[in-house]
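BUG-395 | component: ligand-complex export | severity: low

The export step for zinc ion jobs runs without errors, but we want the raw record kept on the ticket for reference. Input record follows.
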Amino acid sequence: MKNLLVVSALVLSTAAIASPKTQWLTVDNEVLARVQSKMPNKSAQALFSNSHASVVELNQAQIEQLSEVIHHELHRCGGFITHETYAEAELALTAQGDSQFAQKALFSDYDINQKQIVVPMVASVQEASIREMIIKLSDFKTRHYKTDTGVKSSEFIRDTWAALAKNRSDVKVELVSHKGWPQASIVMTIQGSEKSDEIIILGGHADSIAGMFGGQGRAPGADDNASGIATITEVIRILMEQDFKPRRTIQFMGYAAEEAGLLGSKDIAAGYKARAQKVIGVVQFDMTLFKGTADKDIVFMSDFTNAAQNEFLGKLIDEYVKVPWGYSKCGYGCSDHASWTANGYPASIPFESTMGDINGKIHTDKDTLQNAGGDASHAAKFAKLGVAFMVEMAN
Ligand code: BES
Ligand code: ZN
């Protein structure tokens, strides 16, 4: 054992003297496959791979060669990221690395420069429209993901969103079905006019649950989460009313089966990652109805979320909503934002209260509009934030 240690130490130090300092790169697999044969001395061999990218070890001169080959062969820049250590490079290609990246990386410059569009939109948020949609959704006996009314409630959301978009040929509203349960998710897409490959998402879960045997009883889910879907519906209503044409692509989502373990959003977010789609911002509205905390109107869960995007949303509140906001923690992946984070995308959840002040009626037949204050004035603040986020991020 002792001898072995000495030998490896010798090899290490010899390598350090003999070859110039190397770096570890994570390289897109398609890029690597195209350029590998053009690299001298069989450099750029994969040391570790996942389905999208590989780790290769190169010195500075080889990195420059790689850049040149990529330029020459693919007529593009980049295609790789450099790392100081092998461990860091490998981590970047694992699920844990995806989640860390999603929470820490910068995905946008987070500029506020759309005031002329956002200010009038924010002024047109209607509490009554949100309230009406909450009532319609909580009138379904249950929106449980395995029930017939759960299926019908998703179709109702699809129809409501499609009706708001009826004059727009650049907007589509679809049901996305899942393997393993009958309730579909709802996805509305406004195609971006300039950077259509870059996507901004506002979502919330469409299902509800109550009691131990979720599917059987009455589950109005007014706060959890008719309120989130109704808040998103108000954002859609305003963007359609103003005939807003985004530069980036915008999507609104109602996820199926969140209450059963984030099932719908996991399925959807994994698909975006598998297709290497560029999602540059995700916001989750899950519970916007009940004002549980006296001195804070909007509370960002700081765990399983992107720190820079959370701060940006706080700035948007200061600029456009002008209500007090703060931070709290779920302590676990408590809603669909966590599915996006796990797949490497930046996500936030602006929530109705701190974790200590939550609505105690959720997941029971008492989760009603009346029991959460009787009107949607708290949710209206979230609709304003939603409009501001979508317009500022999309343009
Ligand atoms: N809306 C809740 C999450 C929530 C509750 C967030 C209270 C903050 C405060 C969500 O619908 C839910 O119930 N999530 C589950 C977890 C999920 C993985 C099944 C939960 O919290 O038990
Ligand atoms: Zn919920």
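Assignee comment: Attached the raw record above. The chain is about 40% helix and 20% strand.
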